[in-house]
Design goal:
The structure is a single chain. It is built from 16 helices and 4 strands. With 384 residues, it is mainly alpha-helical. It has one domain. A two-stranded antiparallel sheet has the order 1-2. It has a two-stranded antiparallel sheet with strand order 3-4. The N and C termini lie far apart (52 Å). It is found in: Cell membrane. One of its GO terms (biological process) is aerobic electron transport chain. It is a multi-pass membrane protein.
Length: 384
Amino acid sequence: MITYEFLQKYWWVIMSLLGGLLVFLMFVQGGQSLLASLSRKEDEKKLLVNTLGRKWEYTFTTLVLFGGAFFAAFPLFYSTSFGGAYWVWMIMLFSFVAQAVSYEFQSKPGNLLGQGTYRALLFLNGLISTFLLGIVVASFFTGSEFTVGKGNIVGLGEAGLVISQWQNPLMGLELIGNLRNISLGLAVFFLARTLASLFFINRLNHEDLVKRSRKFVHYNGAPFVVFFLIFLIWTLVAEGYAVDPESGNIYLEKMKYLNNLIEMPVVGILFVLGVVSVLYGIIRTIATSKFKNGIWYAGPGTVVTVMMLLLVSGLNNTAYYPSSVDLESSLTIFNSSSSFFTLSVMSVVSFFVPIVLGYIIFAWRSLEKKKLGLDELENDGHTY
């Protein structure tokens, strides 16, 4: 018989998978931040824009799916984080809106803002969204300043009752002042640019752009590794937010996240394999001039690595969204999830996820049968 606890853990696994997919697909944003650096001519820039333009909807759709699934499965997180860390989420979401508008309107004849303005917005989306996403994910380990009046949940709908309150007037912007958060924010930013460079190497039929992309794998891969190691080592040796399985009380445990990797050996092994896969894709691309498949190692490796990090933050009696001002307000997969009925119904729907993923893979492969060059771009019926 399926238990409530099983469903809560099941949906945390689903959310972790979506989180890993989202971070990987941010290579589109990474590529947008490279437009001016990689291109030397207008036709090169247009080629890069159109190469990314065939993928930007995947990132946007995954972001919407991630937010919607979080709202349905763990509504208390949704109300606490999206309502409290307001400015971080709003700035990120507005940058995605600007991205969508930019792709659709930059080449429209007679647009008022001009092509340069829209491409500047693409750059800002590439910079802001990747950095802030890393900041938000890091807060799953470092904590945020909020309190939750769990007793008010019973009286939901009554006038004057508030379930969660953010305790910092900066409404999420204070997260940018945490050095550990910054290290992961920069790691995600440089990772996205590295994945974009690997994607260009694999996808483009343009010798000059491919050569420059190889250099940018080195330029961005090195700082990614540095900032990721800073965050990882800092997190593994720091105190973590543990949950007493009997009482449900939250307390600080030394090296909690390292203990989680050890106590969940499958998660620990997959995490190591994910990291190795990312590094292999980067290092072999730098070392071998004819190797063009780095994205197919670094991409899946990114998905697995991020997924395992998120599993470590929420499983094995761990508070996945800790409160740094009131430990007992910290959110766990048990005290923040939807009802048994809601999770059960959603689980039936989740069985269609493999079908959706299969369709994405099929559509991706169909679009990638032929590398994209200037000649192919001119013969394309739709360009950005």
